[in-house]
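Quarterly update from the structural biology core.
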Amino acid sequence: MKWIGNMINKKDYNNLILLSTNLYKTELKRHNDAGHLLNILVFLVDNGITKNDGLEELYQEILTNNFSVVLNIPEHFGGTGKPCISWMSCDHPLMIYAAIKLNEGKIEAIHKKAIEKVLSLSEDRKWKCKGDPLLGGFRGPGRKDDECPITTLNILKMLSLTRANSYKTEKLQALEILMNLWNERKTRRPYLFAMGTDFKKLKYPLIWYDILNLVSVLSRYPEAIKRAEYKEMLEIVFEAIKQNGYCPQSVYQFWKGWDFGQKKNESAYIKKTIEDIVERTNKEK
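Predicted structure, tokenized:
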């Protein structure tokens, strides 16, 4: 364990690990479901948890299932209405990210193959909302030719675990997409992803398309840190701290009872996340 050990009760920590082992027994119906086990797993690995903390069996399940999840897309949304082990372009890179972190950051041949599969989904220099053919042609609400913001962010998050000189073209491509989305935020909402008031609220864990998750990922790339867009985003984070300290401005109800599941007191998790962002940013100055 890393700093997570000082943040939560050991019982809560063990409960989350036990809960996450049921990943392939749980259907994913909404990607922004903060209580879904994929998002719980992302929280755990973001805080130093690896397969050595009781998740070896789950790690092997993830590999066996090719970094997929159990999805159930209703027929009226274009899906089959039945659960199946499959993927969408937004959850696939996140699952690969979680698996690599579970493997203590070690990228092996099986991870590399999965990374390259996700990157190959790019069309017209952007990653759109796509799904496994098993899902019956389902995609999110929006224009099919638009770039998908959360897919792009999760791909960049996944690639942040690779060596700096690996996948350089794809990294720069994803960075440019996210910067353009920021610049066009007042006129565009691809797949209904807006970047307005709610987007700018400090929120944890880092599982969705919001300011803290975006800045955290971008701060891992020197090319992003030098951009005016990044500085604008970071200033919004600083302004939130100035106004409310490290208090969460928005919360996921599933995490009620955690220090980031309420709005009255400062969150050690949010504080640590921002401190890490600042540290990475200052290294590039």
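The chain has a mean pLDDT of 91.
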